[in-house]
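Fold sample X.
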Amino acid sequence: MFFKYITSIVASSVMAGVLSAATPVQAEWRKAESDRFIVYSDVGERQLRNFVQDLESYDRVLRFRMGLPGDIPTLRKLPIYLVGSSAELAKVRHGAGNSLAGFYIATDEDIFGVAIRDRNVDTLKHEYAHHFMMHNFSYAYPGWFVEGFAEYYATVEIKADRFTVGRFNENRASWLMSAPWMDMKDLLSLRPQQRAANSETYYPLAWLLTHWFMSDPERQQMLAAYLLDVGAGADSVEAMERATGLTMIRLRDTLRRYATGNLSFQIVTAAIPTAPMTITTLPESADDLLLLNQRLKIGVPKDARAATAAEVRRMAARHPDDPLALLALGHAELHFGDPAAAEAPLQRLLALQPDHVEG
């Protein structure tokens, strides 16, 4: 209910398996559509259905905690591509390394998420928390709170009749216990991509500070005052000292005691409804072009653009007159190939499907 509280304050002033082209076996891609998500994956129907149910349940928990009605329809369903390996993830994000478990991205052409299905689901929950926050509570938040909020809710555990909030991620906790902490002034002032001494503890400390605020009603009011102050243009460090009455040294000492004491979590009894959804099987072209077409939407390094266009041409040739193949071919020619050659496949796509939005 904390966000319902802060929203009422702020509204008046500011915020109202590995695939490759050479593999002869075709994966069977499916599309699952629920109230708030569209999920694409080549897993079996039962596994896909369970995954989408988990997403809907997580969204429902966030809405419950933030005081939002659970039955208000979303303006746009979030597409998520659930892949089987790092190699598949790299089909979307050119050059992605093996350490990347997933990502969320918003561009001029699309907003979507990609995740490796057998990796830790905390990553996807973290990214969806960002989407949820900015979609429903857009505001000038400090960087540490943007990440701390996502970290705090990424570890939610959900059962059919209850959910648990406030658990810790073991990797983050190990950094807090064994590594030197970054300076509190740096934590409050910097974005996560900005480097500073001991910045490896940025995310763990952002989680800890958020947990400290969220675990007590009085501290929630302090957090609300701090966010309002920062949103109005105040210096983050000075705003924190005003809101909490603590210097940076005392805040650091307070968090150390809190981290080594009783980190409480909350178990909330609430029925999580079964989410209605429809599942359809996609044509064979999805195996070759579904992920590759998403790559075209997020940008490709200059030295890889010609090769990307050539790959799309080769894959599209395997699926003549297929809508996805026509879309991807026109898309690739428009961005990285011959723009004049983009018109023919896109005109053909619209002849086949006049209401095709992307086309």
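Fold sample Y, listed below.
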Amino acid sequence: MKKIKIGICGWGTVATALHSSIIKNKNQIKRTHQVDLEIVAIGARRDNPKYNPGETKILRDVFDVLDEDIDVLVELIGGTDDAKTLISSAFEKKIPVVTANKAVIYEYGDVLFKEASHNDVNFLFEASVCAGTPTINLLKNDLAGNKFLSIKGMLNGTSNFIISQMEDGMSFEDSLSFAQENGYAEADPTFDIEGIDAAHKISILSNIIFGSPLPPNEFLIEGISNITKQDIYVAKKLDLTVKHISSADMKDGKLLIRSNPALVRKSDYLSSLKNVRNGLVIDTDLIGKIHISGSGAGGEATAAGVISDIVRLASESNNHNAILKEDLKHRQISDEPFSFLIIVNSSSENINSDVLDKLAEHRIPISNSGLINDGKKSDITCFYETEEIASIALQEFLNDLSNLSSNFKTLRIEK
């Protein structure tokens, strides 16, 4: 039986869940994987009043953990610059690293992968995407031999949780507060609600399957902070649901990466995933589409992904993640054809006919349109579902639409 001595840096929600899970499941891990996990030390600048580490050694300088007799460093301090320095220092000491920190991989991934390879040490980060739901190892190992065509899904459990609560009648603000109260959103939720966290994750996945750089070239990043109860209401009436979608796909030899709110048809697999569930649709040439889903937020779910990497260290000789980069060409989101849902609110009785005239004037084809009474008797709510059109062409119409109404919204509809 192989023994792995672990040093943990960071002492927040994930780190305490990791400590607790290893102690609780120690015998199970021994029995099923023939690996004995021992936590040697914790690098924590301050105590966590919610959890007692018992007799485990506490070091106030996280870098001191590297001087302990450890087989792997688990980096959970978060952030980018300090985390990068800590990971690089571990590599210099020939210590493998496991992390759940998607931000540091997004910002310094290419550099860290090269350093790990140069020092011939493992660098694993399963929990950085989809928490404990097996994703990265699936892409890197289990689907070997497949050519990847696209990967698309919901990669931020917080956003999905907020939208689920809005579907049940809450406002965005109340849903966000509820998510924070339940530990699904940080005190500063910017990374989650503005799409940045999901953008980091889809960039990591694109790096694995398409060889795109980390950090990647500029791409579309939009969050859910502008989604309203009316958007949810109108979508539901049209058999659509609002989701935050992250996607990377290759078409005609060109890559497009994006992270944005979009409308998903109720018949789509992703539409059924609620609350903190993450879900992915992976399209390959050999076995077609693969659907995976699981919890995408919470300490225990993330700890599960970290433990899977630690156990994997016992059996894998090297996993440097030095991705062979491709000389990629990119598509522009402004040129990409999408169907759009346009929602217009106005007190004018002629608003519907006026908007239809403008659509015809701009030669924008419509597949569906109508009026929806959402309970606001002072305003008329109109909707227009376009055929596929490039957003750069739609923008000219929207500029004219602003002369008819200042209260309108456009949302992409997933293909």
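Sample Y note: The chain has twelve helices and 18 strands.
Also: The chain has a mean pLDDT of 92.
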